[in-house]
Write a structure and sequence with these properties.
The structure holds two protein chains of two kinds. Chain A is of the alpha/beta class. Helix content of chain A is about 45%, strand content about 10%. Chain A has one domain: Rossmann fold (3-Layer(aba) Sandwich), CATH 3.40.50.970. Chain B contains 13 helices and 14 strands. Classes of the chains: A alpha/beta, B alpha/beta. The interface of A and B includes residues 121 and 135 of A.
């Protein structure tokens, strides 16, 4: 790794990593509340426990790069720089939402940050990322497309087809597998003959690493290594980030498939708890600094809720808009 | 006859007209490229792309692995990334392996993103029966695709449309599917030397008539025109409509014709149940019911997976005799 691509472990950067994870956590905790009060409907899949993956990985991207995510993508959207206000308005389905309310929780899109969803078919985003990488390569642009997906997607044919095509054509795609051990309610060991997922990428001759997905600095470091290799023209790169979902799969999940003790054990290694504790113990941040981050996040969430509440419902007369784009005249 | 004033034409085939369209698209737009199974070195399953690899090179004529979902999805991604991909799928039957990408992504991204991300993609594929390829290579599933809001579905049946629809489809900001009937590839005829882009949203009246409207598209157009010829010998003047675009459907042309002729026969190589022919029939009921002098008739494929033996395959498909008989029946003859 060169000095330029190494994570810059300055106090300011470390504080920023914590700040990003905290604001995602507080945003989603509020979303759960808002779901219970029926402001948010449909499916709501929270990322709580997995924040280090999106926050760490997205540090390696530039604004010109692209992101393809899944239906558990609030964290990626916020870490990518979408305003919390328009993301919250999207959760409400208001026309001020980042997808004008048409998508909701599972379909966050944003052209300004090249955020291509919000894809709710497991595995369905991978071919899109391959194509975005193909477009960049054919047009000689030095961009990277980061594609996030869960370990459940690895069982899909689209995963294998996409690995093969990306490797065959040496496309600039960073594949980030968020291995949280459960595909909805089915444990990894019950769905995969080979549970060491990063080996699957190697079988396609894609360089791959397994990373501690609960350690934001480790994820950032791995993502920077990966992006450096991709930008150097070495083709795709694969990170398996080992993480854990603290909350239910969605708001309809009674969590019959795992022990509470297992969840509690993982929570002890939670990305915010662990990183925040380390920052305080080493004296990099003081309690007051952490409190300031919390206060700022709370204010940002409040402002986002106020923005969404003040938002408007798209007129029913506009129902059939955005099905076809009008041809340029 | 004044030869100097006559427009110059060339003798060509449907296959060559399609190839000329692809060649023109790649020459005129550096963003355009073609990918699919065996489109390059092999020359295309139906030889449409033969020779293009030598002309444009492997960057723009891309052989893909047998991964319909990945290369169709990659086409969608490349379109999002500023390219103008032409994706070839060998047959509509294989397109089912990419149904997720076409229906869940290509058709929905503009809407789900609140109008931010359009998908300017063209997907071409062969469809239809007649080559004794049996039940996994012969079906006509374009009607399924016509069910889906967010995509456009074309069925070029003439040399002009084979040559002209691709350019318009590529210029369209939306995903467009082009269905090429396998029995049309060898069709020969004269095409204007300067043939170019054509519209992709209007049906065409291929033969005017006053007694009955025969509505067809793609591979059934020429069978329907043959039926109209036979009817003419009996003094029945059939009007023949070529739908050309299956989505959007040009209801105005259909309804206008049926309102004049007061009788309609819908011809579709798809099966009858839950089909495009049912949609056309329903639109006639909704918009021209009071003009009708007879129930709308349909001539479709028999409700059976297409069989291999020639006599059974032909028996399963709409044929001119059945079309003519259905037309006569609407006239009580």
């Amino acid at each position: 790794m060169t000095a330029a691509t190494k994570p810059h472990l300055s106090r300011a950067h470390l504080a920023e990593l914590l700040r990003q994870m905290v604001r995602i956590r507080r945003f989603e905790e509020k979303c759960v509340e808002l779901y219970q009060s029926e402001k948010i409907r449909g499916f709501l899949h929270v990322y709580i426990g997995e924040e280090a993956v999106a926050v760490g990985a997205l540090q390696a991207l530039t604004p010109e790069d692209a992101v393809v995510a899944t239906y558990r993508e609030h964290g990626h959207a916020l870490a990518r720089g979408l305003p919390m206000t328009t993301v919250m308005a999207e959760m409400y389905g208001k026309s001020e939402g980042c997808s004008r309310g048409r998508g909701g929780s599972m379909h966050i899109f944003d052209a300004a940050t090249r955020f291509y969803g919000g894809n709710a078919i497991v595995g369905g985003g991978l071919p899109l990322a391959v194509g975005l990488g193909l477009a960049d390569k054919m047009q000689g642009r030095p961009h990277v497309t980061a594609c996030f997906f869960g370990e459940g997607a690895v069982a899909e044919g689209e995963f294998h087809e996409s690995m093969n095509l990306a490797a065959l054509w040496q496309l600039p795609v960073l594949f980030v597998c968020e291995n949280n051990l459960y595909a909805m309610g089915t444990a990894l060991k019950l769905s995969e003959s080979e549970t060491d997922i990063h080996l699957k990428a190697q079988s396609y001759r894609i360089p791959s690493e397994a990373v501690d997905g609960m350690d934001v600095v480790a994820v950032e470091a791995a993502a920077r290594r990966a992006v450096e290799a991709i930008r150097a023209g070495q083709g795709p790169y694969f990170l398996e980030c080992r993480t854990y979902r603290f909350r239910a799969h969605s708001m309809f999940d009674a969590e019959l498939y795992r022990d509470k003790a297992e969840v509690e054990e993982w929570k002890k290694h939670g990305p915010i708890l662990r990183f925040g504790t380390w920052l305080r113990e080493t004296g990099i941040l003081h309690e007051a600094d952490v409190q300031a981050i919390e206060v700022e996040a709370a204010a940002e969430v409040d402002a986002a809720v106020a923005f969404a509440e003040a938002g408007t419902w798209e007129p029913v007369e506009d129902l059939t808009k955005h099905v076809y784009r009008e041809a340029a005249r | 006859m004044n030869d100097a004033a006559a427009p110059a034409t060339i003798k060509t085939t449907y296959r060559e007209a399609m190839k000329a369209a692809i060649r023109a698209a790649l020459r005129s737009d550096p963003r355009a490229f073609l990918m699919g199974e065996d489109v390059g070195r092999y020359g295309g399953c139906y030889a449409v792309t033969k020779g293009l690899l030598a002309e444009f090179g492997p960057e723009r004529i891309r052989d893909t692995p047998l991964s319909e979902s990945a290369f169709v999805g990659a086409g969608i991604g490349a379109a999002l990334g500023g390219m103008r991909p032409i994706v070839e799928i060998m047959t509509v039957n294989f397109s089912l392996l990419a149904l997720d990408q076409i229906v869940n992504n290509a058709a929905t991204l503009l809407h789900m993103s609140g109008g931010q991300f359009n998908v300017p993609l063209v997907i071409r594929m062969a469809t239809g029966a007649g080559r004794q390829l049996a039940a996994q290579h012969s079906h006509s599933l374009e009607g399924w695709y016509a069910h889906i809001p967010g995509i456009k579905v074309l069925a070029p049946a003439t040399l002009e449309d084979a040559r002209g629809m691709l350019a318009t489809a590529l210029a369209d900001p939306n995903p467009v599917l082009i269905f090429e009937h396998v029995m049309l590839y060898n069709m020969e005829g004269e095409l204007a030397a300067d043939a170019g882009a054509v519209d992709i949203d209007k049906a065409a009246i291929r033969r005017p008539g006053r007694d009955v409207t025969l509505i067809a598209y793609g591979g059934t157009l020429f069978k329907t025109l043959a039926a109209a010829e036979a009817l003419a010998k009996d003094g029945i003047e059939a009007e023949v409509i070529d739908l050309r675009s299956l989505r959007p459907l040009d209801s105005a042309t259909i309804v206008g014709s049926v309102s004049r002729t007061r009788r309609a026969v819908v011809v579709d190589e798809g099966w009858k149940t839950g089909s495009l022919s049912a949609e056309v029939t329903a639109q006639i009921m909704e918009h021209a019911f009071w003009s009708l002098d007879a129930p709308v008739a349909r001539v479709c494929s028999a409700e059976v997976p297409i069989p291999y033996p020639r006599h059974l395959e032909q028996a399963a498909l709409p044929q001119p005799e059945a079309i003519a008989a259905a037309a006569r029946a609407t006239l009580g003859r």
